[in-house]
Amino acid sequence: MSAGPITIGEAARRTGVSAKMIRWYEATGLLPPATRSEAGYRHYDDADLHTLRFVRRARDLGFSVEAIADLLALWRDRARPSAGVKAIAEEQIADLRRRIGELEGMARTLERLAESCCGDQRPDCPILDDLATSDGPRLTRTSSRGLGQRSPVRRG
What we know:
Elements: E1 6-7, H1 8-15, H2 19-28, E2 35-36, E3 42-44, H3 46-60, H4 65-76, H5 83-116, H6 126-133, E4 138-143, E5 146-151
Antiparallel strand pairs: 1-3, 2-3, 4-5
């Protein structure tokens, strides 16, 4: 329990969530707006810290912001059936497995390219040739945590 309002820096220290991310979670609605001091500084309470730990753990498990919002709503509704929570978790498992498959494919491609590269003093390099000439689908990042959906290649 805290003895009073907690600053954003202290909230960050206690939860392992950066001050920048705390402000972003507040802006996106995952965290309710902080109370403000007369000087305009954000202040948080124990419930806010609990929510931040919940969000951090959900992000650690790879949940999207949208899924975390749904999970928070379910968490706050003590009368909810657990079926909705399980459905969100199973959806996340399927997404993680899809992403693992993409990463394994990328690793196989890089292994093949690395095996074809002599790695000596010659300037020829099949890895660079592939990077320079590949017109296959591109992978995009949906977050700082990992790969997302394939995006179409734009052709001019």
